[in-house]
């Protein structure tokens, strides 16, 4: 069985989910930091959480990160998050 506890990216993913669950736009800056993480799993969940939280700041962060994102799966998360904000 794989030991997920050894992988920092899974903690960061769970943190992004927890920040969304709090539903506080004050967490947007933490998610913006997560959008710059080296792990695409973390960036993808940060994009998802930003889309769920919504708001002008979250939208701006997603748009800025779309242009520099290299992972197609993260780009998909960003597109879906932006579509939900319309």
TrEMBL record:
Database matches in SMART domains: EZ_HEAT
InterPro entries linked: ARM-like, ARM-type_fold, PBS_lyase_HEAT
Listed name of the protein: HEAT repeat domain-containing protein
Source species, domain of life: Bacteria
Record Pfam families: HEAT_2 (PF13646)
């Amino acid at each position: 069985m794989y030991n997920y506890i050894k992988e920092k990216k899974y903690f960061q993913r769970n943190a992004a989910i927890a920040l969304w669950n709090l539903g506080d736009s004050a967490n947007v800056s933490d998610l913006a930091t997560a959008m710059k993480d080296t792990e695409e799993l973390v960036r993808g969940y940060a994009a998802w959480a930003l889309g769920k939280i919504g708001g002008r700041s979250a939208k701006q962060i997603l748009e800025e990160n779309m242009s520099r994102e290299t992972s197609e799966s993260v780009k998909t998360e960003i597109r879906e998050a932006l579509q939900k904000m319309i």
